[in-house]
Amino acid sequence: xxxxxxxxxxxxxxxxxxxxxxxxxxxxxxxxxxxxxxxxxxxxxxxxxxxxxxxxxxxxxxxxxxxxxxxxxxxxxxxxxxxxxxxxxxxxxxxxxxxxxxxxxxxxxxxxxxxxxxxxxxxxxxxxxxxxxxxxxxxxxxxxxxxxxxxxxxxxxxxxxxxxxxxxxxxxxxxxxxxxxxxxxxxxxxxxxxxxxxxxxxxxxxxxxxxxxxxxxxxxxxxxxxxxxxxxxxxxxxxxxxxxxxxxxxxxxxxxxxxxxxxxxxxxxxxxxxxxxxxxxxxxxxxxxxxx
Length: 292
Fold this sequence. Notes:
CATH topology of the largest domain: Rossmann fold
Shape: elongated
Oligomer: single chain
C-alpha cells in the first residue's frame, strides 16, 4: 500500500522541546528539541509504516487571514530563545537524513498539509496527517485521516471519529469552528456558544447559512441575540479558517518516497550534535528503524 505521512514539523518540534529535558553539546548548542523530534518521528514511522514522508514547516501567516480575524494567533508566545536556533539544526538533520521537507513562504503548515493531502489524494491509498491542529479535520475523508504527533498509540481520526469527537462531519468543521471559536488561535466565536452548542445548531440547520437563514426559529433569548450580534464575525471566521488547498507545492509525490539515509552525510551530523547512540546505531545497522 502506498501510504503518505504528512508531519506538522513545528508542532512536533515544540512538543519535543517541552517534553525532553534540556540538552546541549559541549560547545553549548541546545539540541533537545531536535533530539526529541528525531525520536518522535521514528516512532511515527514505526507505528504508521508509511512509504512516503513529508515534513511541513510553517512559512508564516497569510496577510489576508490576519486581516479577517483581529488578533489572529496574537495569544501565541514568541518562540523560546533556546528553541529558535534548533529550527535550523532540524533542517540540517532533514537534509542529511534525506527526509523530504517543505516550507512555503507566507503559508501556514496546516494549509500546506491540506493542499498536499487534497492534491495527492488519488495518488495514495492512505494519507495520514500528524498534527494536533483541529483545522485539519476539515479535509478528513475516506483515505485521509489525522493522527497524534506522538505516535504512541495506533489511533486515527477518520470521518466517523470526527463525528464522534466533535458532533459534526468533516464538511461542517469550518462552520463549527467559526461559531464556537478556537482559543488556540485566539479566534472568538459566538459568545456563549461552545463546541457542543455549535454542533447542535449545525445538526439542525446544516451550515452557518442555515442557522442565519432560520434565525427566527430559534428560541428568543440571550443565545439568539448573541448569534445575531456575531453574524459578521462568524462569516469572517469561516472565510479565514477554511484551509487553503490550492497552494502550489513545487514538489512531486515521488520526492517524498522514504529511502535509506546517506550514512556519509548523517553520521557526521549526529556526531556533531552529540547524538552518539544514534550515530553508533546508524554505523552498525546501516539504517534507522522505520526506514526499511
